[in-house]
């Protein structure tokens, strides 16, 4: 009788553990699939932004045909890639590299850098890639948890019976690391390319004012001598009102 009860308890324990493990596997797989769908939404948004970006660049840099064609081909390849992370990784990585080259050539075209449509598209692309990068980190974390369960015993036994397989990591980098940085300073937006500020960073850098164009004590066009007597000498620290000697 005792042996029978012990066997029943063991069987019940195995069944309960199996159900619990199966539920955890299903939950991990569903979480991984949902996190990938979120990334896929942002990838499609990036694909949609690229044609307008290419057309804008073409209007100012039409002879950069090779680079523009590479971007279009990489975009088409990414669009037609399979729905899984493993299938999308290589295509999206190639697209990111092509986009990085496209952004870099803008440094040689001041009119393109000053174009509002270009800067707005670049801003939207950068925000989209930020969301892709954030989603990739979360997705890869869920993949790690799922794959650990699939590889570990005894959960691997239940994973095989439930048909739960390992998922692929999404390793494709976005173009954010290669894209220029927008600097909205005086004179419109300037874009610094990768590395040391882009191929024309030295030309794009603001030049210092010529010697003698600004008198001591003048800041941002303010002249401390304005409205004061002829004998007034600027002092580093003074608090005088107009008309006071």
From TrEMBL:
Membrane topology listed for this record: Single-pass membrane protein
Low complexity composition-biased segments: 199-218
UniProt keyword annotation of Transport present: no
Gene Ontology CC: one annotated term: membrane
The protein's name: LemA family
Localisation: Membrane
Bias (Polar residues): 227-236
Keywords: Membrane, Transmembrane, Transmembrane helix
Listed InterPro entries: LemA-like_dom_sf, MamQ_LemA
Highest taxon of the lineage: Bacteria
Biased composition (Gly residues): 186-198
Keyword Cell membrane listed: no
One Pfam family hit: LemA
Assigned protein family: Belongs to the LemA family.
Region called Disordered, residue ranges: 186-245
Gene3D superfamilies named among the record's database cross-references: LemA-like domain
